[in-house]
Amino acid sequence: MSSHDSHDYVVRAIRADDWPRVKQLRLEALRDPVAHLAFMETYEEGEAKADAFWQDRAVGSGEGSTAARQFIAETPGGEWVGTVTVIIEEAGTKDWAGHAVERRQGHVVGVYVRPEHRGNGLIKALFDAGVEWAWERGAERMRLHVHEENARAQGAYRKAGFVPSGVEMAFFKDETQNELEFVLGRP
Ligand SMILES: CC(C)(COP(=O)(O)OP(=O)(O)OC[C@H]1O[C@@H](n2cnc3c(N)ncnc32)[C@H](O)[C@@H]1OP(=O)(O)O)[C@@H](O)C(=O)NCCC(=O)NCCS
């Protein structure tokens, strides 16, 4: 059992000057044993990115952005231990896979919690922050994609209220495997 509970953390949006920690947490996530199922890039690809990439990301997904927002959880000692990013997808656009977006929606990506902080409700607190922001931005629903074999992530998403929509997409690294779309309707 973890010795932390979700009340120990501060969940907040990232700021421009946070970029070195954004990079550090992402590289740690890319070393997770399920990173090959969970994330679109490899550790080597992430590590090779220039500082300018992380600086742009910290602004583009930072507290001043209306297009995307990255939330992180910080311990009282200032350690970053989890993150969720929400990207606003606008009706009438195409998503990254070329599919039409039919409604304004929040797309959850980059979900990661440090192993010693799992199973204590922190992921739900991060989701709550991301979902609340998307509703404020006028999203009509939330969605995300999860690999069919990433059972733990699926469990966490169900606990946050998400359900499978029935839409499946071939996994971009292996077309014999699927990613499942999970959705959450606006209350
Ligand atoms: C995904 C992640 C953020 C979830 O956070 P978490 O704190 O581990 O989630 P929780 O423990 O609250 O919830 C997971 C649920 O799935 C259950 N679960 C765990 N392993 C499981 C398995 N193999 N099969 C089925 N259910 C499983 C857990 O028991 C738990 O449900 P419960 O609380 O009812 O017991 C975290 O595990 C993580 O960072 N994983 C690595 C990166 C990743 O996979 N990201 C998601 C990319 S889509």
Concise description?
With 187 residues, this protein is α+β, with helices and mostly antiparallel strands. Helix content is 29%, strand content 31%. The chain contains 6 helices and 7 strands; from the N terminus they run E-H-H-H-H-E-E-E-H-E-H-E-E.
Describe the structure in your own words.
With 187 residues, the protein is of the alpha+beta class. The chain has six helices and seven strands. Helix 1 (19-29) crosses helix 4 (51-60). The radius of gyration is 16 Å and the shape is globular. The protein is 29% helix and 31% strand. The longest helix has 15 residues, at 122-136. Strands 1-2-3-4-5-7-6 form a seven-stranded mixed beta sheet, with helices on both faces. The chain has one domain (6-142): Gcn5-related N-acetyltransferase (GNAT) (Aminopeptidase, 3-Layer(aba) Sandwich), CATH 3.40.630.30. It has helices spanning 19-29, 35-38, 43-47, 51-60, 122-136, 151-159; strands at 10-13, 68-74, 80-89, 105-113, 141-147, 163-171, 174-185. Strand 4, helix 5 and strand 5 (141-147) form a beta-alpha-beta unit. Bound molecules: coenzyme A (COA). Coenzyme A (COA) is lined by residues 32, 34, 38, 111-113, 118-119, 123, 146, 150-153, 155-156, 159. Coenzyme A binds next to strand 4 and helix 6.
SSE inventory with pairings:
Layout: E1 10-13, H1 19-29, H2 35-38, H3 43-47, H4 51-60, E2 68-74, E3 80-89, E4 105-113, H5 122-136, E5 141-147, H6 151-159, E6 163-171, E7 174-185
Parallel strand pairs: 4-5
Antiparallel strand pairs: 1-2, 2-3, 3-4, 5-7, 6-7
Helix pairs in contact: 1-4
Bound molecules: coenzyme A.
